[in-house]
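User: Run a structure prediction on this.
Assistant: Running it now.
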Amino acid sequence: MKPVIQQEKTGCAIASSAAIAGISYKEAKAVANSLGIFAKDQSLWSDTKHIQKLLKQLGIKTGNKEQPFQSWDLLPDCALLSIKWRKINGKAFWHWVVFVRENNKVCVLDSKKSLKSNIRTDFGRMKPKWYIHVK
């Protein structure tokens, strides 16, 4: 699995979905838009139903609900993680990233454009709140 860079400031859900599906940001955005999902919609940062709907349309199965993050070792081989979790005016917001364990390597694919590397292994710096299992 390879990282996909978000092309919009608020496109982490679309980029994470693209990385999981193995397609480009542009392709994932076209599918998302056809489903009424747009990066500028702030509910992408505070609701899981949009990314689950997009992944389902892309043929990717996910768990039905968020699971509390306990440790990196207990995560499934692929998971959507909520990091940078915070509340603004009582509403939760987060940044989507993809946890991947494959070929004896463990990393997080982070779509943020300004990162030096979008393949992250600085696990101590990331503070996941919860995850969704990607099957």
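The CA atoms of residues 15 and 43 lie 16 Å apart.
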